[in-house]
């Protein structure tokens, strides 16, 4: 196993990429994006076997692609929190759920909230907040939750933060389950709205059958989010986060407002999580509390750390593997959590920096290993 | 990405243009800049500072000396917001700063280096300094994300090539981009100023010890402090390096900074400072010009048997 | 909100809360000791407890123990189950340390990674009982709640005069058992030579290793001790609730962790105070509101404590404890 990892390291893909001329990188990137858009129709023989629907027990390929991209969005958002700012958030599913529930609560004509609004303002029974308006609501809700949760807890030690956020994720789910007259309780909410679009073949543009359209929509959003996240990474904000991670006290003395930047990381992560949840809820057209179990939080965290926390490419790889593999091997569904746990332990023990690490993270860990070895030698 | 820009030969010239990194000061030379007013600081039973009292005047180089454990570093920590004094106050430009958050104090205009070097080890030297520059930058997180704050660029700031140039002419350039460029330029300038520009793109942890010490100074200068506090900047230096450092400290003052320096090497302290404050067991035992302090019997007694680090 | 339900049965609910709290306190010890020495939240500790409950079930099954046996048999079966649970839990804790934490310590991985491998171990253990063992052996393993024979027949042993509160033998056993174990552990850590090593490492690992304390041994010791205490908790839990389930650890673990933080993490006596307090608060809350909110109570208590008194009620002090 470790030999495989070593030979892979020998390829030095990251360095080669950086040394490649700019035109090459642009063209390569465009090709990758084009291929990503083409994926739902993948029929090139050597690639086609990765399609989940060609598998006897497999599921709808375009829907799987959509889920992968939604989880990628969530993972890129969580990477801002974990990878950039170095904060462990174990309650990310809470924000994801808030996003999904926002669009359901305000956009679905059958949600108790909308019904209350209807009767309060004498609106028709079909009335609901339009989908486009639900987007800012969802982002605002998850962002507010992020700030409310972050403000008192970000001053705590990192591992305390992990537990408090974990609690937050559970509180959101339990609240959604228990508040029947607001969230529809365990039954959930149906008729969640979909994005507007021209009608084709008598069906609305975004429907339950043509999943590839959902996938393309999500892909566009993912590209946008990745672009914004890398803007952050290569700016004063990214430097501030890195400085905080490396030496918070020294950073403060150099004028870095640690708490402010951490809170921003938390808020940004929360709103991206909300956005991912919104996409998910809208495609399902149905939300219910059980879709937001704690394990999903662990899955998100695992995508980030297994992929390579701090490195957007790594995180995308992690999200892809952890969403795609379980879908590809659906016949082993019952074994999924076990395999997931095992993978977490194995990958982290053998390769704490993740599969596709950020060079800095790898260096940090390498450094500490030397320190640990020296300390052990001294003792 | 931008890290991989190759430094041009011109950038490597070790003569810096002082005008580019000199700071603007807001008061007259000689007026009181910082006032340590009857400060006491206790750690449980340990009294690290006991009713300490002194001023720093604008434009001077003040030495803070004393035997090991005298409370010098603790004094820095109190001035930069790392610790809050148990009693007494500290005023900077007539503003109370004891108990203020460290990053706020930095924004007010105090920067420091650390006795036990505390760089950001995985960042390049240049990035370390850029973190310091960021302290003066105004772009917010949203500004970085959406770049909506546009500035009309001057001719020199316009890109050379066609489309980008027209774009910048019509839509301006985002403040973030300009600040990033300015920060990069200024950081490079500062690295040259302290004499380590040749290894600007190396990660801090791989730099030689002497470079790390200088990098700390450059990083502190980048925050454009009116007062810069150096905690044993010459520790571990050989005599030639110490000589260099004395020059550097004087040049820092010439840029408009006021300098407070902790140092054990008497020769260096006596050679470079305008005034000296002496601490022993947390108490101030003397204050005055280098000549006065060197003659002071209390100081001589305090340093008796105290081996000179220069040896 | 329903305060009447609470007021009417205040004495009963308090006793109920203390019973629960005793179990939380015992599990909390594991979190507290590991945290004190390694500054690490051992995420898999909840599963150490879970393994203990299954071991109790296994022991009873092997012995053929059921309800309504003779007194001698009951005592023998219970003691054997206790021993087995302590061994199994301690062994699990040690295995987690070996597999998930030690290699990372050697590599100097950042604290975050320890939490992740802890979560991984936790999942593996949960799924071992929920899936792996079921695949090989079938029931009782699997994702359903399993009954454990109530070997000890519940009887009212006495009634507290004045308030007329009947106290059953099982409750008495749990409360006394928990307190005895806590005292034993506290004495061990404070009086024995090994215990001094634990405190020394908790206080200052570097100095301790200079003084010749073997840090690796101390770490193993706290995992074993914490595991054994979780084993005791597992037995007491099964006596009171007669069930187990593959994922029973999670919620108890969270509560025990809350208890540890509430009392002051790293502080053994804090674990007791925090556990009892949390147990009582939780039972009261479930009376005032609806029991579907019970699990939220612990989280809310946790957030409040961390916001207003992050060092806990008694302060954090495995090392500082009268050192
Ligand atoms: N965080 C702390 N907690 C407890 N005591 C401290 C702390 N920081 C400093 N001290 C104590 O305060 C006293 C002064 O320490 P300080 O570091 O200021 O001395 P110094 O003059 O900088 O010495 P040196 O020349 O060795 O750097 C010492 O006795 C030290 O042990
Ligand atoms: Mg010092």
Automatic annotation (TrEMBL), chain A:
<feature type="transmembrane region" description="Helical">
    <location>
        <begin position="214"/>
        <end position="232"/>
    </location>
</feature>
<feature type="transmembrane region" description="Helical">
    <location>
        <begin position="335"/>
        <end position="351"/>
    </location>
</feature>
<dbReference type="Pfam" id="PF02653">
    <property type="entry name" value="BPD_transp_2"/>
</dbReference>
<feature type="transmembrane region" description="Helical">
    <location>
        <begin position="89"/>
        <end position="107"/>
    </location>
</feature>
<feature type="transmembrane region" description="Helical">
    <location>
        <begin position="26"/>
        <end position="49"/>
    </location>
</feature>
<keyword id="KW-1003">Cell membrane</keyword>
<feature type="transmembrane region" description="Helical">
    <location>
        <begin position="292"/>
        <end position="323"/>
    </location>
</feature>
<feature type="transmembrane region" description="Helical">
    <location>
        <begin position="263"/>
        <end position="280"/>
    </location>
</feature>
<dbReference type="InterPro" id="IPR001851">
    <property type="entry name" value="ABC_transp_permease"/>
</dbReference>
<dbReference type="InterPro" id="IPR043428">
    <property type="entry name" value="LivM-like"/>
</dbReference>
<protein>
    <submittedName>
        <fullName>Branched-chain amino acid ABC transporter permease</fullName>
    </submittedName>
</protein>
<keyword id="KW-0472">Membrane</keyword>
<keyword id="KW-0812">Transmembrane</keyword>
<feature type="transmembrane region" description="Helical">
    <location>
        <begin position="61"/>
        <end position="82"/>
    </location>
</feature>
<keyword id="KW-1133">Transmembrane helix</keyword>
TrEMBL record, chain B:
<keyword id="KW-0547">Nucleotide-binding</keyword>
<keyword id="KW-0813">Transport</keyword>
<dbReference type="InterPro" id="IPR003593">
    <property type="entry name" value="AAA+_ATPase"/>
</dbReference>
<dbReference type="InterPro" id="IPR027417">
    <property type="entry name" value="P-loop_NTPase"/>
</dbReference>
<feature type="domain" description="ABC transporter">
    <location>
        <begin position="34"/>
        <end position="306"/>
    </location>
</feature>
<dbReference type="GO" id="GO:0005524">
    <property type="term" value="F:ATP binding"/>
</dbReference>
<dbReference type="Pfam" id="PF12399">
    <property type="entry name" value="BCA_ABC_TP_C"/>
</dbReference>
<protein>
    <submittedName>
        <fullName>ABC transporter ATP-binding protein</fullName>
    </submittedName>
</protein>
<dbReference type="Pfam" id="PF00005">
    <property type="entry name" value="ABC_tran"/>
</dbReference>
<dbReference type="InterPro" id="IPR003439">
    <property type="entry name" value="ABC_transporter-like_ATP-bd"/>
</dbReference>
<dbReference type="InterPro" id="IPR032823">
    <property type="entry name" value="BCA_ABC_TP_C"/>
</dbReference>
<keyword id="KW-0067">ATP-binding</keyword>
<dbReference type="InterPro" id="IPR051120">
    <property type="entry name" value="ABC_AA/LPS_Transport"/>
</dbReference>
UniProtKB/TrEMBL annotation, chain C:
<feature type="transmembrane region" description="Helical">
    <location>
        <begin position="23"/>
        <end position="41"/>
    </location>
</feature>
<dbReference type="Pfam" id="PF02653">
    <property type="entry name" value="BPD_transp_2"/>
</dbReference>
<feature type="transmembrane region" description="Helical">
    <location>
        <begin position="172"/>
        <end position="189"/>
    </location>
</feature>
<dbReference type="InterPro" id="IPR001851">
    <property type="entry name" value="ABC_transp_permease"/>
</dbReference>
<keyword id="KW-0997">Cell inner membrane</keyword>
<keyword id="KW-0029">Amino-acid transport</keyword>
<feature type="transmembrane region" description="Helical">
    <location>
        <begin position="108"/>
        <end position="126"/>
    </location>
</feature>
<protein>
    <submittedName>
        <fullName>Branched-chain amino acid ABC transporter permease</fullName>
    </submittedName>
</protein>
<keyword id="KW-0813">Transport</keyword>
<feature type="transmembrane region" description="Helical">
    <location>
        <begin position="218"/>
        <end position="240"/>
    </location>
</feature>
<feature type="transmembrane region" description="Helical">
    <location>
        <begin position="296"/>
        <end position="315"/>
    </location>
</feature>
<dbReference type="InterPro" id="IPR052157">
    <property type="entry name" value="BCAA_transport_permease"/>
</dbReference>
<keyword id="KW-0472">Membrane</keyword>
<keyword id="KW-1003">Cell membrane</keyword>
<keyword id="KW-1133">Transmembrane helix</keyword>
